[in-house]
Amino acid sequence: MQIFEIRIIAMTDPKFLNNLGARIKELRIKKNLTQIDLAAQCNFEKASMSRIESGKTNITILTLRKISNAMDIEIIEFFRQ
What we know:
The chain has 81 residues and is mainly α. It has a single domain (2-71), classed as Orthogonal Bundle (434 Repressor (Amino-terminal Domain)), CATH 1.10.260. It contains 5 helices and no strands. The protein has helices at 2-10, 14-30, 35-42, 46-53, 61-71. Helix 3 (35-42) crosses helix 4 and helix 3 (35-42) crosses helix 5. The longest helix is centred in the N-terminal third of the chain and has 17 residues, at 14-30. The chain is globular, with a radius of gyration of 12 Å.
């Protein structure tokens, strides 16, 4: 149960969200996708993708799944260094 609690706290940590957003951006760029391309594939507005990549929004696991599916990568890749 402790691991679950730690992860919930991490999802409200601005540093964690900034790092996650930066990683999403890094992977998006490696896939040669623009924010507009990725947002469209996820059925998001471009502004939403911008907020995610800048760490300004607390995204859900379902949102991460949409992004990972659109980039054809595993969710775990967002958390690798």
